[in-house]
UniProtKB/TrEMBL annotation:
It comes from the Bacteria. Keywords: Signal. Belongs to the leucine-binding protein family. InterPro entries: Leu-bd, Peripla_BP_I. Residues 1-24 form the signal peptide. This is Branched chain amino acid ABC transporter substrate-binding protein. Pfam families: Peripla_BP_6.
Amino acid sequence: MPSRTAFRLGVTVLATTLALSACGSRGDNTGGGSGQTGGGAGNKTAKIGVIAPLSGDLSAMGLGIQHSVELAVKQANDSGAIPGWTLEVEAKDDEAKPETAKNAATALAGDSDVVGVVGTLNSSTAQNVQPVLAPANIVMVSPANTNPSLTRGAEFADSPKRTYKNYFRTCTTDDVQGPFAAQYLLEQGIKTVATVHDKKTYGQGLVDAFTKEFTAKGGTVVAAETINPDDANYQNVLAAISGKKPQAVYYGGEYPQGGPLSQQMKAGGLNVPLVGGDGLYNPKYVELAGGTSTGDMTTSVGAPLDTLAKGKEFTDGYSAQKYDQEPGAYGAYAYDAANAIIEGLKTSLKDAESAEAARQATVDAIGKVDLEGVTGQVAFDEYGDSKTRILTVYTVKDGAWAVAKTGELQG
């Protein structure tokens, strides 16, 4: 999955609030600002929906996703990318809750102007959105869902089967990310770990994938524990782990819980790195974990943007809009997701009388998309997964996340 509230890849994004278009203030983040400019009189309208947490603990990620989609739509409208059509963004707040996400998807599916959706952030919310958008033939491109079952079904490891042909994603998956972390820890001489996850789809799947690779390559999991996402005190779990003397703790979950877990580990005398996935990759994690977080590690999807050909182009364009939230871990992936939809719309809307009439054609067109995006090649395999599987390990150094290694899963 999962963010970061500050974007530390060689660029500083100003955090001020401005209006993006004539549709109103960006201060209202729970409804959909259009991201529309350059529309001509008589143009038909097509909407790209966004479903993400726009309020609550994970809103930094969600708002970064929303604004990145708005940037892509603004640029498409300004360039006249789809003659005769004006694109708009319709953003819905799912609060990182599956039932709220389902309601958001239902609202978007009922809007005849909606032809595609970027989202969701959380794998658990995607599970509720997929069955709503699929019957409506609305393409869904996630910038952040990392659970493999969303594209390849519950038996993805042994018998992969694509369940929803309208579903795609621009990020890589946990069955790549977890093993990548396992291999890295073993390379660093870490042979024993304890695992903890938050019982959610993302966290549990990440730990399962990590554990399988770590033990297969000779590592030992000395303890396997869980927490509740609403907990604030983790002393019982840490008491069960500490006596096992792990060299690291691998955590499956997101930064609002991961940061305090790290802080409480160190305060209780368990002075080993906390390691996790992309859900931790947020400067807020370092703030919550405190000064003892030095040496903690995380993996995140893709290479650092400042190493990619189009990275500066995206960050400069985003900064110029002066959005009220930085793009975060998934802004670039949301931008690429939106541009994948826009690329499909160039075909599907060409002779369409309405956005609704172009929905199935859009699904078909996106399956054939192949473009150079901010995050690398944007193209999808037979399951709808991204063909790009680059990952980066980051470690906390001098109070911030620093790059440790970028590469691909070996073997």
